[in-house]
Specification:
Elements: E1 5-12, E2 15-24, H1 29-41, E3 46-57, H2 59-74, E4 78-82, H3 86-94, H4 97-100, E5 102-104, H5 107-117
Parallel strand pairs: 2-3, 3-4, 4-5
Antiparallel strand pairs: 1-2
Helix pairs in contact: 1-2
Protein backbone atom coordinates (compact mmCIF):
# COMPACT_ATOMS: atom_id res chain seq x y z
CA UNK A 1 0.00 0.00 0.00
CA UNK A 2 1.67 3.26 -1.07
CA UNK A 3 2.07 5.98 1.50
CA UNK A 4 0.12 9.20 0.99
CA UNK A 5 2.36 12.25 1.22
CA UNK A 6 2.55 15.70 -0.29
CA UNK A 7 4.47 18.94 0.18
CA UNK A 8 2.75 22.25 -0.40
CA UNK A 9 4.93 25.29 -1.09
CA UNK A 10 4.23 28.96 -0.48
CA UNK A 11 6.12 32.16 0.25
CA UNK A 12 5.63 34.65 3.04
CA UNK A 13 8.04 37.44 2.19
CA UNK A 14 11.46 35.81 2.02
CA UNK A 15 10.33 32.78 4.01
CA UNK A 16 9.59 29.57 2.16
CA UNK A 17 6.77 27.60 3.79
CA UNK A 18 6.66 23.87 3.19
CA UNK A 19 3.42 22.28 4.38
CA UNK A 20 3.81 18.54 4.90
CA UNK A 21 0.76 16.30 4.57
CA UNK A 22 0.43 12.61 5.33
CA UNK A 23 3.10 9.99 6.04
CA UNK A 24 6.77 10.97 5.87
CA UNK A 25 8.61 7.67 5.81
CA UNK A 26 11.34 5.86 3.88
CA UNK A 27 9.16 5.76 0.76
CA UNK A 28 8.22 9.46 0.80
CA UNK A 29 11.37 11.03 2.31
CA UNK A 30 13.02 11.36 -1.14
CA UNK A 31 10.08 13.52 -2.26
CA UNK A 32 10.56 15.85 0.74
CA UNK A 33 14.33 15.86 0.19
CA UNK A 34 13.86 16.85 -3.46
CA UNK A 35 11.65 19.81 -2.50
CA UNK A 36 14.11 20.93 0.19
CA UNK A 37 17.00 20.69 -2.28
CA UNK A 38 15.10 22.68 -4.91
CA UNK A 39 14.37 25.46 -2.42
CA UNK A 40 17.97 25.48 -1.19
CA UNK A 41 19.26 25.61 -4.77
CA UNK A 42 17.01 28.62 -5.41
CA UNK A 43 18.73 30.45 -2.57
CA UNK A 44 15.84 30.06 -0.13
CA UNK A 45 17.60 29.69 3.23
CA UNK A 46 14.75 30.77 5.50
CA UNK A 47 12.38 27.81 5.60
CA UNK A 48 9.40 27.01 7.74
CA UNK A 49 8.14 23.44 7.76
CA UNK A 50 4.47 23.33 8.75
CA UNK A 51 3.60 19.91 10.17
CA UNK A 52 -0.09 20.53 10.92
CA UNK A 53 -1.20 17.83 8.44
CA UNK A 54 1.77 15.50 8.97
CA UNK A 55 0.36 12.36 10.54
CA UNK A 56 3.53 10.26 10.79
CA UNK A 57 7.30 10.73 10.58
CA UNK A 58 9.96 8.02 10.48
CA UNK A 59 13.71 8.21 10.96
CA UNK A 60 14.08 8.65 7.19
CA UNK A 61 11.91 11.76 7.34
CA UNK A 62 13.83 13.09 10.32
CA UNK A 63 17.03 12.52 8.38
CA UNK A 64 15.89 14.98 5.71
CA UNK A 65 15.65 17.74 8.32
CA UNK A 66 19.10 16.83 9.63
CA UNK A 67 20.69 16.75 6.20
CA UNK A 68 19.80 20.39 5.48
CA UNK A 69 19.99 22.29 8.77
CA UNK A 70 23.76 22.79 8.82
CA UNK A 71 23.96 23.97 5.19
CA UNK A 72 21.00 26.34 5.66
CA UNK A 73 22.53 27.89 8.78
CA UNK A 74 25.92 28.23 7.07
CA UNK A 75 24.14 30.42 4.50
CA UNK A 76 22.75 32.62 7.27
CA UNK A 77 19.29 31.06 7.19
CA UNK A 78 17.28 28.82 9.44
CA UNK A 79 14.77 26.01 9.30
CA UNK A 80 11.90 26.23 11.78
CA UNK A 81 9.22 23.64 12.46
CA UNK A 82 5.66 24.52 13.44
CA UNK A 83 2.25 23.05 14.13
CA UNK A 84 3.39 19.50 14.88
CA UNK A 85 0.64 17.17 15.97
CA UNK A 86 1.05 15.60 19.40
CA UNK A 87 2.32 12.35 17.87
CA UNK A 88 4.86 14.00 15.57
CA UNK A 89 5.83 16.47 18.27
CA UNK A 90 6.62 13.61 20.65
CA UNK A 91 8.96 12.08 18.05
CA UNK A 92 10.76 15.42 17.67
CA UNK A 93 11.03 15.75 21.45
CA UNK A 94 12.22 12.19 22.13
CA UNK A 95 14.94 12.49 19.51
CA UNK A 96 16.16 15.84 20.80
CA UNK A 97 15.04 17.93 17.84
CA UNK A 98 13.98 20.73 20.19
CA UNK A 99 17.66 21.26 21.02
CA UNK A 100 18.58 21.59 17.33
CA UNK A 101 15.53 23.21 15.77
CA UNK A 102 13.24 26.06 16.67
CA UNK A 103 9.94 24.19 17.11
CA UNK A 104 6.99 26.51 17.62
CA UNK A 105 3.26 25.92 18.19
CA UNK A 106 1.87 27.51 15.02
CA UNK A 107 2.68 29.29 11.77
CA UNK A 108 2.12 32.88 13.03
CA UNK A 109 4.50 32.25 15.96
CA UNK A 110 7.11 30.80 13.61
CA UNK A 111 6.84 33.75 11.22
CA UNK A 112 7.21 36.08 14.21
CA UNK A 113 10.37 34.25 15.25
CA UNK A 114 11.79 34.79 11.76
CA UNK A 115 10.83 38.47 11.97
CA UNK A 116 12.66 38.73 15.26
CA UNK A 117 15.93 37.58 13.71
CA UNK A 118 15.58 39.34 10.38
CA UNK A 119 18.62 41.38 9.41
CA UNK A 120 16.84 43.01 6.47
CA UNK A 121 15.86 46.59 7.22
CA UNK A 122 13.54 48.53 4.92
Amino acid sequence: MPSSFSVGRSQEGDITILALNGYLDAHTAPQFEKVMQEEYDRGHYRMLVDCAALTYISSAGLGVFMSFIEDIREKGGDLKICSATETVGQVFEILGFSALFDIVPDRPAALQRFAGVSTAEA
